[in-house]
Amino acid sequence: MRLAFIALALTVSAPLAQAASQPDPAADMKAFQGYFLKQFPKLPLAAYVNGPYNFSKSESDQWKQIMEFPPYQFAVDDGKKLFETKFPDGKTYASCFPNGGIGIAQNYPMFDAKTGKVVTLGIAINRCRVANGQKKLKLTVGPLADISAYMTSTSDGKPINVVIPHNPKALAAYEAGKEYFYTRRGQLNFSCASCHVQAAGMHLRGDVLSPALGLTAAFPLYRSSWGDMGTLVRRFIGCNQKVKSEPSKPDSTAYRDLAYFMTYMDNGLPESGPGARP
Ligand code: HEC
152 C-alpha to center of ligand 1: Å? Predict the structure, then answer.
């Protein structure tokens, strides 16, 4: 793979900078994906799930080595055991999900009309626990990341398919997520887009900045720098901290909406979690 050090000027406007007066997620997605396909004409849509590996030969070589013994495999195995273990009431996680939870991860986050809120896969796992008399798990690491890893592995390759229904609250959640993504914050005054749109493919210290397109597709993932698995919200917290801004709570509306917007932008890309990153 060629190193694509596309010198995007930092003044390049974000693909969705001009807010439409009426929310139009489908048009946004087309513009968002089109922007990257134009910036990196050699990169096919499905390749975006590989994030930084498209832009760094040394990282992609490292990746090939890592993938001989995928470091997330233990999480998938542990997650499967947990997924199949009965709650004290005799039910399992399968009872809480469509199709018994198999092959459905690509449909999350989902809008829940009953509560008017976005539900990520992690939050759905916790809801299932509470419905069966169990305590919630941490949304960032540990057993919940393992269960997510297992469930996501059963969706491998399925096109991401987040739905935004014609419901004012769903559209508002989408718009809030979009706004979060483009809002500058923290002492460094960077938005998510500053790094993952305007500087996509460029280097930041030791890292290559992944394009915003595909950012959600390989979660949960094993990061060598974490030394274990983490969910998408773990990464949100990390990226908030990078710019010295106060992270939101893992189950906050802000992060749910952000995940809703970002994953919707990835619609059509193959579900690729669990993943591995340097
Ligand atoms: C100062 C630059 C910077 C900003 C601002 C930033 N990130 Fe990141 N982000 C990084 C770096 C560096 C990485 C690790 C390398 C990579 O994959 O891009 C990363 C990785 C990620 C990843 C994992 C990608 C993968 O494939 O492993 C996600 C998801 C992500 N960022 C989301 C966000 C979100 C959401 C925001 C806004 C709240 C944000 N980032 C803001 C620098 C930034």
Answer: 21
